[in-house]
Amino acid sequence: MSLELETRFYNFAERSRDFCCSVKWDIVNTEYIKQLVRSSGSVSANYIEASDDLGKADEKMKLKISRREAKESIQWLRLILTYGNAHAETERSWLIDEAEQIRKILSAIINKLGG
Question: In the predicted model, is pLDDT for residue 11 greater than 80?
């Protein structure tokens, strides 16, 4: 696995966490924020696990989980309310774009592995 991608996926999780700290934690956002923290962190965690030498099938499975978590992150990002906060809106747009790029990268890796 690529250290560059590992770092990029970690940075996505870190920025997602920071985004969650910057938005209002109310009754609506609380559950969405919790889900985003989990899914964004799982992108990098599963990518790291894919690098363990447990065989190609396990590697592909972990990469597919990582890709699914990137897709879920997009969903939670869209649902979190920013209440018109321009900085939060800008950061959310960046995070959604990054999650989409991560999804495409992981899809390409999975396709290259034959699955």
Answer: yes
